[in-house]
């Protein structure tokens, strides 16, 4: 059972899926040629949308596993970093190709790599925490 704080987090995250769905509409219109976007932009828009959806689901699954397994601190709190990655990585994909006909990503691509590091931190924390919880009598 989730405590009230994690219920609020889960509810808020589920509401963000509405934004991910709207993002899918945006990606579709760009790929369909309804607004000007070059190949780089189309690829990055697809990748950003895919990462948003997958990471939101991964964050929810991670949170459920950690909370129902009584993972100890600080692992439990640090595992929430998966949700932070679900914001940073897609943002890096989308924002790094803003502009008219970019030929390569701009400096905002750093958000993607920062997000990847945060994702690793969250998953390491969850994985190690689950192992510790499983080995603790």
TrEMBL record:
Keywords: Membrane, Transmembrane, Transmembrane helix. The chain crosses the membrane at residues 6-28, 49-66, 78-98, 110-135. This is Integral membrane protein.
């Amino acid at each position: 059972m989730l405590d009230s704080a994690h219920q609020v987090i889960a509810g808020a995250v589920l509401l963000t899926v509405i934004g991910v769905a709207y993002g899918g509409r945006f990606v579709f219109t760009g790929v369909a040629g309804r607004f000007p976007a070059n190949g780089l932009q189309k690829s990055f828009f697809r990748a950003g949308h895919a990462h948003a959806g997958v990471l939101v689901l991964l964050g929810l699954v991670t949170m459920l596993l950690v909370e129902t397994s009584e993972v100890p601190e600080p692992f439990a709190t640090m595992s929430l970093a998966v949700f932070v990655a679900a914001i940073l990585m897609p943002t890096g994909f989308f924002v790094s190709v803003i502009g008219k006909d970019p030929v390569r990503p701009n400096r905002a691509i750093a958000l993607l790599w920062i997000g990847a590091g945060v994702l690793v931190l969250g998953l390491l924390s969850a994985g190690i925490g689950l192992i510790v919880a499983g080995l603790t009598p």
